[in-house]
Amino acid sequence: MPSALPWIRALGASLLTLALAPSFAASSGAAYPTRPIKMVVAAPTGGLPDVIARIVAQHMTTSLGQAVVVENKPSAGGIIATESVAKAAPDGYTVLLLDLSPLTINPTLYKKLPYDAVNGFAPVRLLGIAPLFLVTNPNVPAKTFQELVAMVKAAPGKHTYGTIGVGSLHHIAFEEMKAATGMDMLHVPFREQPSGPVVAGQVDMILAGLPSIEGFVKGNRLNMIAVSTSKRAPQTPALPTIAESGLPGYDVSADIGVIAPKGTPPEVISTLSNALADALKQPDTLARFNELGILAADMPAEAYAAHIRKEMQRFAKSVTAAGLAGSN
């Protein structure tokens, strides 16, 4: 796969060059920022990325001495928000907070994108990892992942799973699960997070972040089966991972971070990165992250660039294996 995807290998010459560039912000006494910073969010108001953006923006406003203003630009695949930041002036006054799907899934999923996922951005910092929880309608008899796999394989094509849309992280996560287990299920895409539909029995199961399902789980309207990350979530320590439940190596999460347009000066990237790191250290940030089921990642630019490159390779294979390459 890597040999067929030169844009993946090119990432080392683009993202990492920016990530490794020396930082002069502290020593030069640069005036940046001198005006408000716009933080574009590729998600609707109230979504997990939006909540994270508002948490860190508040602390960044204090540490930088300028307002950090959150602007939501939701769209399919996060394309509108990502394009707008790619085309913004590389001066540090426009950044993008997103999960990695627009950079890692979209380049293989879409025949053409209005932005360059490899060369159009400079990583700033990875902030948090949001596990996805596999939950089912209470009428589904399976109570463990092993039982769920057996149930689905006993009735090929009968059972359903819902996602926020074709090519979404949740969709690809299910496709990886299906490929590894041999399950045959019907995908039902929705325009919004389908917690309601699975509660209503329109679909059998979903993968979702904790905030959108926690109330339903507490009210016994959804059953938790497993968590998608390689380690158990601290919020649900008794809940096993999918990996330990019969699918070794399975590890999927919504990785949320900040990127800037390509060409943003290294000293500006450093200033932004330091402000984000400071925001992540604040007790109220950590407490809120814990409530939301988010694991603080705090990965600086160089490591974030490497992580993006690795995830690009991984999801290029998964999207292609699912027959979705160039489908949008």
UniProtKB/TrEMBL annotation:
<dbReference type="Pfam" id="PF03401">
    <property type="entry name" value="TctC"/>
</dbReference>
<dbReference type="InterPro" id="IPR005064">
    <property type="entry name" value="BUG"/>
</dbReference>
<dbReference type="InterPro" id="IPR042100">
    <property type="entry name" value="Bug_dom1"/>
</dbReference>
<comment type="similarity">
    <text>Belongs to the UPF0065 (bug) family.</text>
</comment>
<keyword id="KW-0675">Receptor</keyword>
<protein>
    <submittedName>
        <fullName>Tripartite-type tricarboxylate transporter receptor subunit TctC</fullName>
    </submittedName>
</protein>
<keyword id="KW-0732">Signal</keyword>
<feature type="signal peptide">
    <location>
        <begin position="1"/>
        <end position="25"/>
    </location>
</feature>
